Structure of NADH-ubiquinone oxidoreductase chain 2:
Amino acid sequence: WLTGQWDILQMSHPLAITMVILALSLKVGLAPLHTWLPEVLQGLDLTTGLILSTWQKLAPFALFLQIQPANPQILIMLGITSTLVGGWGGLNQTQLRKILAYSSTAHLGWMILILQFSPSLALLTLITYLIMTSSTFLVFKLNKSTSINMLATSWTKAPALTTLTPLILLSLGGLPPLTGFMPKWLILQELTKQELAPIATLTALTALLSLYFYLRLTYAMTLTMSP
């Protein structure tokens, strides 16, 4: 109605562009439009949660790739807010699905932040996130774990898998020299090249929040035993 056409790639009206970006942000769970994601994910089984956290992101992300030059300022704001809220929100959670929901918000913040500067790097980050998140959901499903306390029984159920799972979790957190560190390091480098060093610094600090709750999961899985 505002633009007089159906072509999403030819939008020029600022209000229409902003509404589309916010709608896509709500769809994927970017902060501050993320509040539905933890509660919905908590109410789903792990298989459906896996689909919601991975496959459901592809179509909106493809649209983001097409319209990202239209309003770069709002993408930067959404990216910073998502990395901060995603890291902070997961700190006090005990349910694994809620932790993974906040993890999703934080990772999407990194992708949206770099999207306008390097779409290929954003795509690399998305692929890395999809692989790591799928692996995490499948491990939790195999062990029938839905809360942090239930991770203590992982050693008795699947010792070999439990040995490898902390590497996946710490990779999601971006701990070097694991795979998940690479896209985050490249994103920080690109932001610095674009003369956005303050944003790069803030984003790196928010990554420490996410790394903390991944360390919590690793500790519960490897260094605690069920009674």
The CA atoms of residues 90 and 99 lie 5 Å apart. The first helix runs from residue 14 to 28. The radius of gyration is 18 Å. The mean pLDDT is 85.
